[in-house]
Design brief:
The structure is a single chain. By secondary structure, the chain is an alpha+beta fold. It has a single domain (about 5-120), classed as START domain (Alpha-D-Glucose-1,6-Bisphosphate, Chain A, domain 4, 2-Layer Sandwich), CATH 3.30.530.20. It is built from three helices and seven strands. The strands form two sheets. Strands 3-7-6-5-4 form a five-stranded antiparallel β-sheet. Strands 1-2 form a two-stranded antiparallel ribbon.
C-alpha cells in the first residue's frame, strides 16, 4: 500500500460497516473494559482516556504509553436504523516510518473487523 506522497504520509480513514444500530455500537465501544475484546495491543500498562459520553457518536480517545500520549479520532456514523459505519482516523505520528504506519493500518483494520464480528453475533 502506498501511504506516502513526496515523503509525507497521508492520513487514512479506516472504516467498517457494522449491521447494528449506531447507538448500540457506540454504547459498547465507548467502554474501556470492552477494548481488549476487539483491539489488539491494548494492555493494562496503557492509560486510555475516552471522550466524554455524547450523542454524536464521537469515540475520540487519548492513549498514553511510556509517557507519550497519542490522540486518536474515532466516530460511529449511523447509516440507517439498523447499521452504522465506524471510522478511525489514522494519522502519522512524528518518528513513525512507513512500514510501522502500514502495520498500524493493518492492525486497525483487523480491530474494526473484530468489533464487527463481536457486535453482529
Amino acid at each position: 500500500m502506498d501511504v506516502a506522497h513526496n515523503g509525507v504520509m497521508d492520513t487514512i480513514h479506516v472504516t467498517q460497516r457494522i449491521d447494528r444500530p449506531a447507538d448500540t455500537v457506540y454504547e459498547y465501544t465507548r467502554h474501556r473494559e470492552h477494548l481488549e475484546a476487539w483491539a489488539v495491543g491494548v494492555s493494562d500498562d496503557m492509560h486510555i482516556e475516552m471522550a466524554p459520553e455524547n450523542t454524536f457518536g464521537v469515540l475520540d480517545h487519548w492513549v498514553t504509553l511510556d509517557g507519550t500520549t497519542f490522540y486518536n479520532a474515532m466516530r460511529v456514523i449511523p447509516l440507517d436504523d439498523s447499521s452504522c459505519e465506524v471510522v478511525f482516523t489514522l494519522r502519522p505520528f512524528p518518528g513513525v516510518d512507513e512500514a510501522a504506519y502500514e502495520k498500524d493500518h493493518a492492525t486497525i483494520t483487523h480491530d474494526l473487523a473484530t468489533l464487527k464480528d463481536l457486535l453482529e453475533k
